[in-house]
Nucleoside hydrolase
Amino acid sequence: MKTSLLPAAAALLLAGTGCGSRSAAPAPEPIRLIVETDMGNDIDDALAFDLIYKAMDDGRVDLLAIGNHKLSPTATDYIDILNTWYGYPDIPLAQSPTPVLNDHAPDYTAAVCAMTREDGSPAFARSKTPEQIEDPVTLYRRTLAAQPDRSVTVLSLGFATELAKLLDSPADDISPLTGRELVARKVKTLSIMAGSYGEKQRAEFNVVNDIPAMRKLFAEWDTPIVQNPFELGKQVMYPGAVIENDFGWAKLHPVVEGYKNYHKMPYDRASWDLLSVVYLLHPEYFTESEPGTVAVDDKGFTNFSPGPDGRHRWLTATPEQLTRLRDCIVRTTTRAPKHTEL
């Protein structure tokens, strides 16, 4: 899909403003965020993290913890590179002890982690030793227990592997609450990229790779869930030409290098995970369904049943909203971060 780029003058005019206009209104309290990702399966995770870091730069997000569940020796290392490069090296980071294998796509994280400078030193700095990488369920329990009630937003950008384990976790020395009880008490909402509701409905990638976990998540997660389905991301294509032309301000950029190593350039890529991030910051850019309940069947299809007592909603967008979403994403990702040496 070919997409037009933002005019250069408009991009300069809007630089630094994020996705919204400047306002004299008081800034909202930062979103207390936990992110679960399958970094390395698709480049949209890396681009989504760019949006998160920029929101942190703007004081909109407090990133409490990151968990990764891709089976890869470099995926979590790559997240550490991102945290370090964007200026947030102290974010707690976890790797699943039972990661999920999916080998249908090139793992761009391996290529970026192997990059070196002319002197043979690593191209990108890291901040954590292997001993500092935690177990996701332990990290999530500790993080939730320390937060005020109904204050945490959870963002799921991959399979539901570790979030399902969190629900099953028993009371322990971290908290007398079970995982399900902790979620019900501490979490405000879950924003998730998963499922499909198009005319040609599919068993979507994030669901079908761990069906039991996703089924448990929708059945037992006792807070509102906002679902960003496959079809929406396909309507907002990230332009490969932006990667080629609009990051000249960075000598070496870990997301740009990841994008270049994921597929042969130039290519446009769907904004699946990115939209789940944008929803947290700008829900007005989307159209929400009526409330209802999502069930996951044995083949990995998601089925939505409307009902006033349901905790689930799924997202669509009007043509005008789609244009706004795409412009928002391009403006934000091409903006230089505040806390890195370029």
Notes: Residues 227 and 314 are 4 Å apart (CA to CA). The chain has 14 helices and twelve strands.
